[in-house]
Amino acid sequence: MKKETINDLTTEKTELKREIGAFGGVSIIAGIMIGSGIFYLGAYVLQRVGMNSGLALLCWIIGGVISLFGGLAYAEMGAAMPQSGGRVVYLNEAYHPIVGFMNGFVDWLIAGPGSVAALALALMGVFQPIFHLSDFGCKIAAVVLIFGITAYNMVGVKLASMVQNVSMIAKMVPVAIILLAALFIGHVTPDLSFGSASVYAAENNTSVFSMIALAVVASLWAYEGWTNLNPVAEEMKNPGRDLPRALIIGIASITVLYALFNFAIYKVLPHDQVVSLIENDDLYLGTTVAKTLFGGAGGGLILATQLIAIFGSLNGMIIAFPRYYYEMAVDGHFFKNHAHLSKKYAVPQNALISQAVISIILVLLRDLDQLTSLVVFAGMVYN
Length: 383
Prior knowledge:
Layout: H1 22-33, H2 41-48, H3 53-80, H4 87-94, H5 97-131, H6 135-153, H7 157-185, H8 195-203, H9 208-223, H10 239-268, H11 271-279, H12 285-294, H13 296-330, H14 349-365, H15 368-382
Helix pairs in contact: 1-7, 1-10, 1-13, 2-3, 2-9, 3-9, 3-10, 4-5, 5-6, 5-13, 5-14, 5-15, 6-14, 7-10, 7-13, 10-12, 12-13
């Protein structure tokens, strides 16, 4: 669908380029969803089910099924309305444009730039002890990172999508190495029965259902991000076909990955050791597994995975979020210059620039903990 946009040099119609295929869509989803949380969120799930391994795995599967149901709904809406903007478009249609605008405005001012700023600081935080960077040095490095990723996103979604594809594959290599090694080398036979869960529930005056509900909420943190494909629906080669495929394949594959990865943890670490680690606030069970299997090299694998995972998530967000602001402007509900598409590259450059500027300001004014709290609060209001 063509949209009238204002161009600096001409007033002819400029369209978003359809450069993203089904694999590119899966890469965007997986790039945002699969982060360092895969190595520690399993501990939170276990805590909430009274350390019952079988129930924890069930909760991971339930969380994936819930996300898949949401993905199916988004797939239908995205195929029916293949426009940039995703959630903003759907809120406009379902309720009123003011609802979509309010959601999009919070995304533009807080949620989008806040997430970008937080991830940039988190990535530099990994390098901080290695290069002995000061806190201010980390902030400057984060600013440079945001500027750099935004710069190549401004020269076309094809390049940004290619970077996302490469980072997703690169991230999966160390995860796959750890997973396969754990499954085939691990000698522990995990107890997956649910018996201890009812005992724990009785001792703590709760119910197994309540334990499952709380644990599923914890697992859903790891599934966050699948909603960020729909904003680029208009840039997919065949959104009616590729968007549903990418959502279904992406969410289903990640559900299998999370369940298998947590099962692999139980194959390597005896249950008593898992309980001891969590009680001592050592929540990175996946990291312990990697070090158990590969020694010092395992630490290197984890470091590489974290760096690539955070980078992929950051790149995916910089691709997706500006499409919200662009769509609002096209509909006449936001700053007119945000409806501008560059003539040469057909990307919403002004939306990308404004997001980068706000992100950089937030990096300079806030630390990682403050940014995380800010983004979580914004998410609670509209999600």
